[in-house]
Design a protein that fits this description.
mainly beta, 8 strands
């Protein structure tokens, strides 16, 4: 007579299976606008029980994110590291946004981000690094709340990563 029920064997087998220490992540997303512009986002990294480490590269090629005719070109890189205590995200890159004014002249806005680090732990995010908008460089730690909001909106495309 067998003393082990199928449920008991299943429960015992769960403990006998070796655990996976880490999972490799590879994800590619391509967004194409109606005019043929593209945003290609490639993410790779490692996910573990104790934390994660990923790199995401976003490349814009004449991408038109909205109907106003604005075109975006450039590249932005996001590195993210997380453990039980904090999540640290670092951004680097250059994005140019081109529109036309009322007279039909090209207007180019440039966003340059150098080692912008956002550390989230405990009481709230801490910023460091530099952000340049059309040549005006600001220390990320001293950005006023409105500028932080605008920066978050500018980097919102990473939600597709």
């Amino acid at each position: 007579m067998n003393r082990f029920s199928p449920l008991m064997l299943l429960a015992l087998s769960l403990f006998a299976v070796p655990t996976v220490a880490a999972v490799d992540l590879q994800r590619d997303v391509t967004l194409t606008d109606p005019a043929g512009g593209t945003l290609v986002i490639a993410t790779s990294g490692t996910l573990e029980i104790g934390g994660s480490e990923t790199e995401t590269v976003a490349r814009f090629t004449d991408f038109q994110p909205d109907a106003d005719g604005r075109r975006v070109n450039g590249e932005m890189v996001r590195n993210r590291y997380g453990d039980g205590d904090a999540v640290i995200t670092t951004y680097d890159g250059l994005i140019e946004s081109e529109t036309t004014d009322a007279a039909g002249n090209a207007v180019i806005n440039t966003l340059l981000i150098e080692n912008l680090t956002v550390r989230r732990a405990g009481e709230g995010p801490e910023f460091s690094g530099q952000v340049s908008w059309n040549g005006e460089t600001l220390d990320a730690a001293e950005l006023p709340p409105r500028a932080r909001y605008v920066l978050r909106r500018a980097l919102r495309f990473f939600k597709y990563a």
